[in-house]
Design brief:
Blueprint: H1 2-25, E1 40-45, E2 48-53, E3 56-57, E4 60-65, H2 69-74, E5 79-82, H3 88-97, E6 101-106, H4 121-138, E7 144-151, H5 163-178, E8 183-188, H6 192-201, E9 207-211, H7 219-230, E10 235-240, H8 261-274, E11 283-291, H9 313-322, E12 334-339, E13 358-362
Parallel strand pairs: 4-5, 4-11, 5-6, 6-7, 7-8, 8-9, 9-10, 10-11
Antiparallel strand pairs: 1-2, 2-3, 12-13
Helix pairs in contact: 4-5, 6-7, 8-9
């Protein structure tokens, strides 16, 4: 055990020594030459990075999602990030029609130490062929902004490249070769070790995206620390929003408690004004999460839109923020929901066959126009594992009398 600890200590010393020498020689962590002439490129202008699109400065301002492109444009957004390549031609065409640029995720299998898809060279070759075909097909589409190679990949902290890193770098090279007009990036949950590992082993990446929710108030000190460790580099906030289910309090059995729409609105406004737009000179822009409708923990947690396409209060909030207005819009004023006078933090337990009373508490009076619809669903939040998405559970019927 002691010999193993000494060995790991020496590995760390060697790693940081080599990294320090590399840092002194190359003060910018990722691709060294940012002064490109491609249709989309990044310029290093006196130590600050600026994204250019078709010869004009371009600041990313938009959302991650897959629908309501017209609303995104009219509300002040200019970019949409999509998480896969399904129906990509239709997505790009719709984005072009609404004057939106598109960041296209290329999904990759998650890397783990225990089992790696990247040890199989035949699978790697198939993956490379698919990526090459994809890039060749869409590289000339006018709506394309750049390629995002993998989302939250758990990039390993390694001194020397392993099978994942080698395969990943081959994909970067393929995209750059096939499409020199567009950038290649990736998105990570921020950590100093991930940024340092990527800077060390995948220096040809052009840009990093950070997925940030509850920890967004730490973005400036985090970027400052990374600039010391890995050199100055361009980044954008690839996801941001109100608290996710991993940030909130839970019931005694571990189910996350969803904030009200009023609380979500407060967090959106505060985080945009105080953190997102002040993320630093090297920040290329930001994307709010989630522009559309999806089930993750609940089917209302992240969504800017209801299932039937109706806008939530958050759409009006983002409209104001994107257009530079910081005036609080009128909202429903939902404070919380009670069951027999108790809120979710009370970890409410009900006996079968009993009659119970649910009620909404609002902080304002509504004389007309307010419609309340109650629906009851089994809880799946966190019970299937953090981050695992499932289909919307089946609604419980015949249990509500309004």
């Amino acid at each position: 055990m002691q010999n193993s600890m000494i060995y790991r200590l020496w590995v760390d010393i060697v790693f940081f020594t080599l990294f320090g020498l590399w840092f002194l020689c190359y003060p910018i962590g990722f691709a060294k030459n940012y002064n490109h002439t491609g249709s989309v490129h990044i310029n290093n202008e006196g130590g600050e990075f600026q994204l250019y699109r078709n010869g004009q400065p371009f600041d990313i301002k938009g959302a991650a999602g897959i629908s309501h492109f017209n609303d995104l444009g009219t509300n002040g957004g200019n970019t949409i990030r999509v998480y896969d390549t399904l129906n990509l031609l239709a997505v790009l065409n719709e984005a072009e029609k609404n004057n939106l640029a598109v960041i296209v995720d290329i999904p990759l299998p998650k890397y783990t130490e225990k089992y790696s898809y990247y040890k199989d060279q035949e699978m790697n070759n198939v993956r490379k062929a698919k990526v090459r075909h994809l890039v060749r097909r869409f590289r000339n589409h006018p709506a394309l902004l750049f390629w995002n190679l993998g989302n939250e990949l758990y990039y390993p902290f390694k001194l020397f490249p392993n099978e994942f890193i080698n395969a990943y770098n081959e994909l970067i090279d393929i995209i750059h070769t096939e499409d020199p007009d567009h950038l290649v990036g990736t998105t990570v949950i921020p950590s100093n070790s991930k940024v340092m590992a990527i800077a060390w082993n995948s220096p040809k990446l052009d840009v990093l995206g950070f997925n940030l929710f509850g920890g967004i108030d730490k973005i400036r000190p985090y970027i400052f620390m990374n600039s010391i460790i890995s050199g100055s580099f361009p980044f954008y906030i690839s996801e941001w929003g109100f608290d996710g289910y991993w940030n909130t309090s839970t019931t005694k059995w571990g189910a996350s408690i969803e904030p009200t729409s009023t609380k979500k609105n407060e967090q959106l406004r505060d985080r945009y004004v105080n953190h997102v737009i002040n993320a630093g000179d090297n920040c290329l822009g930001n994307l709010v999460f989630y522009w559309g409708q999806k089930h993750e923990c609940t089917y209302t947690w992240f969504n800017m839109y209801a299932e039937e396409g109706k806008k939530t209060e958050m759409v009006a909030t983002m409209n104001d923020l994107w257009k530079g207005r910081n005036e609080k819009q009128p909202d429903i004023g939902l404070e919380y929901m009670l069951v027999d006078g108790l809120g979710a933090p009370s970890s409410i337990l009900l006996s079968p066959g009993t009659l119970t009373k649910a009620e909404l508490k609002l902080n304002k009076n509504h004389k007309e126009g307010l419609v309340v619809r109650w629906e009851l669903y089994p809880d799946h939040c966190n019970l299937e594992g953090v981050g695992k998405e499932i289909n919307k559970p089946k609604k419980v019927t015949n249990e509500i009398n309004s």
